[in-house]
């Protein structure tokens, strides 16, 4: 059994090493991190009470899977301009997530839901990193916690990978 532990650790996503915002609990998820496309949008669905039911990200031209409760509700989305990146996230939670906001490197921001309960703010440990994926947990009524995956966006320049200019 101990021999299987290292394999399980290798298969787990690095996203789970980061801080969970919210109480957590329920089924785990992690959005796809597409090496060919940058994150280009976020869509959330809110229930009638204001609980955040689901989250979905867009990588390049394609929307990823909807994670969370898939029952229809009020859907809100924010699309990023080409070359625009999310550099800060914030929100609030009680037993479930109630609000989610973010700020981009072009000074734009969006807020989904309403501020209820405990607040959080998240940003990368390096100002050259941007949001590349969202992980978290959900139960039947909605999202219970989120983890934000921050990474560098690499640009090819004469065959060498370099961090983007800011």
UniProtKB/TrEMBL annotation:
Record's signal peptide: 1-17
Phylogenetic classification of the source organism = Eukaryota, Metazoa, Chordata, Craniata, Vertebrata
- List, for all copies, the residue spans of the domain called Jacalin-type lectin: 15-152
Name the source's superkingdom. Eukaryota
**Record's keyword terms, sorted:** Lectin, Signal
* PANTHER family linked to this entry: OS11G0524900 PROTEIN (PTHR33589), ZYMOGEN GRANULE PROTEIN 16 HOMOLOG B (PTHR33589:SF1)
Molecular function GO terms recorded: carbohydrate binding
Q: What is this protein called?
A: Jacalin-type lectin domain-containing protein
| Biological source species | Suricata suricatta (Meerkat)
Can you list the GO cellular component terms from the UniProt entry? Answer: extracellular space
Q: Which InterPro entries match?
A: Jacalin-like_lectin_dom, Jacalin-like_lectin_dom_sf, PolyBind_ProtTraffic
């Amino acid at each position: 059994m101990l021999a299987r532990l290292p394999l399980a650790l290798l298969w787990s996503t690095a996203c789970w090493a980061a801080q969970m915002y919210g109480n957590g609990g329920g089924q785990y998820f992690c959005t796809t991190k597409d090496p060919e496309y940058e994150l280009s949008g976020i869509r959330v669905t809110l229930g009638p009470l204001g609980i955040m039911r689901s989250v979905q990200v867009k990588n390049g031209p394609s929307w990823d899977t909807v994670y969370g409760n898939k029952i229809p509700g009020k859907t809100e989305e924010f699309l990023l301009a080409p070359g625009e990146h999310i550099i800060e996230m914030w929100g609030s939670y009680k037993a479930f997530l109630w609000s989610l906001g973010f700020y981009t490197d072009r000074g734009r921001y969006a807020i989904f839901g309403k501020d209820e309960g405990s607040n959080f703010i998240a940003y990368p440990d390096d100002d050259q990193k941007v949001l590349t994926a969202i992980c978290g947990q959900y139960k039947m009524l909605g999202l219970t916690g989120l983890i934000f995956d921050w990474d560098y966006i690499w640009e090819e320049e004469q065959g060498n990978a370099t961090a983007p200019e800011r």
